[in-house]
Structure formats: structure tokens, C-alpha cells
Amino acid sequence: MEPVGDTLPIAELLDERRHLLEVAHWMLGSRIAAERVTDEAYREWYGLSDDQRARIRAPRAWLTQVVGGICLARLALPDRAGEAQAPVREREQRDTGLEGEVSVVLLRSLDTLSPAERAAFVLNDVFGMAPGTVAGIMGQSEPECAEPADRARHSLRSRRAQPTSPGRQDEIVRAVRQACADEDTDRLASLLSPDATAFFDGGGKVRALTRPVTGSERVARSLLTLLARHPRTTVHAYPVNGRTGLVARYDDQVAAVVTLDIAGSRVVQVWVVLNPDKLRSWNRPRP
User: What is the CATH number of the domain that holds 173?
Assistant: First the structure.
């Protein structure tokens, strides 16, 4: 029987919505956020005129592209980092068995990627979308989309292959702090993976770098510039989210919190929070 207008078999309707929810969930890491994004995509669909909808030959593909675009916009929001832990707990509560455990581990790993890397990896590797489709969702050329996907694969492989013990993490972070204190570019670069990446979150509130810095030498120079010696600046190793990180203070105020993702004996990613809003808890008066 031929479908009439937007009328489709229930199975097809539910399968389409389930597909959109999964795309949004893997991109954002949250079932709740995925529901909102999917609803927003359907609102866009029904915001079109009948003629506009009739001209769309593959509605599911169109909706997938809309979902991808909304997710990319959300990933770029400066205040999104606080969502990271709740989505993982959501998934842990819902999933059981080996498949669930694998999903939780992968979702945790995805939270360490940049928005572009996460989107490219999810669309390419999790959903197997065609390169042209991925490029359309991300608004880039196919070669431009291939680069973040490759970086994401390398980063995820490194983490799975070479877990780092808390003691080793502490040792490497302290070595990084000392290299910064000594302003030793070569020593600092030697502690970084050749394709290490640094991300700077200023939240639009301070004049921080807006693009990731890639490569051990460039990351080393960016860190040394940021943490340059100054009579009123101090940098100390300190527990950050349950592992050793770096805390930089200007006078008595925490000005930056640095977390280091380590695989084996090298730092693979550096995350620098400079956003004053995210540092408020660090600067509250202690009892």
C-alpha cells in the first residue's frame, strides 16, 4: 500500500525516531539531551511547508542531518562540560551486560574528544555514514572531516592500549609542572605524544585560544606561554577530578585548571579550563 502524505507504517516511524535518538545520544552522551534534539529536529520538519517536505526524497537522511547539525551546535557551547558525568551515569543505570559495559567505556572516552573529533568519529565509525553525508552534516569538505576522525581513532586506541596507573599519572604531571617551571621546551615536548592536542576553554570570558593546538612542540610552546614565570603566578600539582592535574594561581585566585590525559608514558591531550564561571568553585572561600 502506498503511503499517504506523512503516513508511514508504525515500525518505520519508530525505527526512524530510534535511529535519530541514537545518533544524538552518541554525539552528546545524554539520553535526555538526545530526546530534546530529536524533538527539535521533528519541529523543523513540520515547520516546512507541504511542498518543501514533498521535495525531500529521503526524509530520514534529512532528519539525520538536522540532528547532526543541532548536536554540533550544542557540542560547541562553552558551558557543556558540566553535562559529562550525568550522561554516563544515565547509561550505566540503563545498560547491563557486556554490550552495556562497552558502551559506557566508549562514551567515557568520547568525552575526552573535541566536538569536531567526537562528531566525525560517531558519524563515521559508530553509524558508518558515507563521507559525503558526514561532510554535509559538519559543513566541511570530506578531507577536512577525515582529519578529526583520524585523530579521534588514534586517541581512543592509545587509551585502550596503554592505561596509566595513578602513580605514573602523578609522576608525569609533576614532570610536566617542573618542565614548565624551568621553561624547558624540549623537556616538556618530550613528555608529550607527537600528536598531542591541547584544548583551551575560555568560555568567551577571557582571550584564550579558540582552536585546538596539535603537535608536541606547539602544545609545549602554548603551555609555556600560558604558564610563563611571573612573581604573582604559581603552578602546583593538585587533585583534579580524582587524578593529579595542575592548578595555576594568579595571586590567591585560581586562574587555570589543567588536566592531562596520559597513555603509557606520554601526555596525549591537555585540557585547560580558563573560563571564570567554571573556576568559581575553586575560588570560593574555604571554611
Answer: 3.10.450.50
